[in-house]
Amino acid sequence: MIHNEIFYLFAIISVGYILGNIKIRGFSLDVTAMLIVALIAGHYGMVISDAFQYFGLAIFIYAVGLQSGPGFFDTIKNEGLKLNLIAVVLLLLIFGIIFTCGYIFEMPRTITDGIFAGALTSVPALAAALEIKHTATTSVMFGLVYPFGIVVTVLLMRLLPVLFRVDLQKEVEAYEAAQKTRFPDIYTRNFRITNENFKTSEIKKSKIESMTATVIERMSLDGKVEHDDEDVILRFGDVIRVAGTEEQLANLSIVLGQEIGEEHVFKDDMSVLRLLTTNKEIVGKKIGMIKELKSLRTVITKVRRAGIDIPSYPNLTLRLGDKLYVVAPEIYVEKVTKFIGNDLLKYPAADFLPISLGVVLGILLGSIPFYIPGVGAIKLSFVGGILITALVLGRLGRVGPIVWNLSPHSTTLLKTLGQLIFIATLGTNAGKYLLESLHNNGFLPIAIALGALIISLGLVAFTCKVVLKMNFIDILGVLSGAMTSTPSLTMANNMTKTDYPSIAYAAVYPLGLVLVIVLAQLGMKIM
C-alpha cells in the first residue's frame, strides 16, 4: 500500500504542511512548500493521477463560487469595471512580452504559445491552442514552464506585500472599514412623536418606515400597547423604538420630533432576540416572503452578515449563518427560535445534492461552445463552467426545495480539501517532466515566462497601489483572478487569514478565463 496514490497524496500534504508552517523571521513558504514537495516527489516517481487534480479543483472552485456569489455581483455593480480592466491590462502585458520575445528570438508560434499557457498555468489555454494546431512542442513547452509559473506566481503573491511594505493586517482592517462605509452600522433609538402634524393627520406605521427606510420594532401608543393591527396609526405623544443607520435616524427625528433616552420602558410582552438563520426552510427566501413571521407578530430589525449590518428590507434574501436581530412577543419566543433555526450544527452539513448537482451543471456549462468572430468556437472549460454556475447559484441561494448555500463548516472543508488535493496532484505531474524538459530546451523559455510574469505583475501591482490607491486585498485578488491562478488565491487567503481576496478574484476570473483562451488561440494565428 505504500506505492499507492492515496499514500502519496497524504504524505505530500503532511510534509508540505510541516515545512510550510516553519517561520524564519516571520516569513514562511506556506502553500508553496507543498508545491515544492510535490514537484520533488513527482521527479522521483510519486505521481498522482489527473483525476485527483480535477476532483480537487472542482470542489475548491465550486466552494469559492458559492461563497463569493453574493459579493461577486455586488462588486460588479460597484467597481467591477475597474477590476476587469486591470485584469485585461495584466493579461495583455504578459501576452505582449512573451510573443515579442518569441519574435526577437525567432521562436515558432507553437513554442511561444506553450510558454504563454505555461506561464499562466492555464490548462484551458493549452487546450485552446492545441485545438488550433495539435503539436507536441506546445505541450512540452507548457510542461517545462508550468511548474516555474506556479512557483513564481505564488511566491510573488507572498513577496509583493513585503516589497511594497504593506501591513496586511491594516489592509484587512481598512477593507472592513470600507465595507462598513457601504453598509453602515444599524442602531436602535427611542422617539416620542412631538410633530404637530400627527395631531391632525392619520399617518400609518408603514408610511414612516417607507419614507425613512427604517424599521419600527416596538410601540407604546396612547399609553397602551397595540400589536393586533399589522399597520397601526401613529399619533402625537406615542413612543416608538426604531432601527436604522445614523443618517436614517437623523432624518427620522425631523419627521417625528423628540429622541428620548433608553430609560423609557415599553410595557409590552416583546423580547429582543439574536438568532442564527439555520432553518433550511427559510434560507434563500426573501424576508418579505416569509409569511410565518407576520403570523407570529415578529419583526426582523437588522441582519448581520460577514461582519456587516444590513437593513432588513423585504427583498433581502436570507443566507445560511445570517445573524438576525428579532423582536417577537414573549409567548412566541420558542416558536420563533425554532422557526429561524439558531443552530448551525443541526443544519444538514452532509447534504451532497447541492454540491454534486452544482458541479454537474457547471461541467455541462463549460462544455458548451460559443463563437467569437475571428477566433471561432471556444468553451469556458471545466473550471470556468463550475465557477460561473457556483456564482449564480450562490447568488440565488435556493431554487424550489434545493438550498444551494452550504454551512460555513462545509464550505471551509470543501475549499481546504480541494486546494490540498489540487496542489499535490499538480506538483507531482509537473515534476516528472521537469529535468527532461530542461535538458531538451534549456532555460530560455523559462526566463521569458518568468520575466513576463515578474514585469507584468510588478507594473500592475505598482499602478494599483501607488496610482489607483487600491487596497492590497483587492490587488491580490485581482492579480490571482486575472491569471486564473487557484494556488495564488490560496496564498492570498492564507496570508490575509480571510476570504476577502476571493471577492475580487471571482469578479475578474470569468473574463480572465475567456481572455486567456482567446489569446492562446490568437497566438497560434498571428505569428
Task: Supply the key terms.
4-stranded antiparallel beta sheet, 14 strands, 20 helices
Descriptive report:
By secondary structure, the protein is an alpha+beta fold. It folds into 2 domains: 348 residues, no CATH class; 157 residues, 2-Layer Sandwich (Alpha-Beta Plaits). It is 60% helix and 12% strand. It contains 20 helices and 14 strands. A 4-stranded antiparallel beta sheet has the order 3-5-1-6, with helices on one face. A hairpin with a 3-residue loop joins strand 11 and strand 12. Helix 14 runs antiparallel to helix 20. The longest helix has 55 residues. The protein is elongated and about 90 Å long.
Short account of what is shown:
The protein is α+β, with helices and mostly antiparallel strands. 60% of the residues lie in helices and 12% in strands.
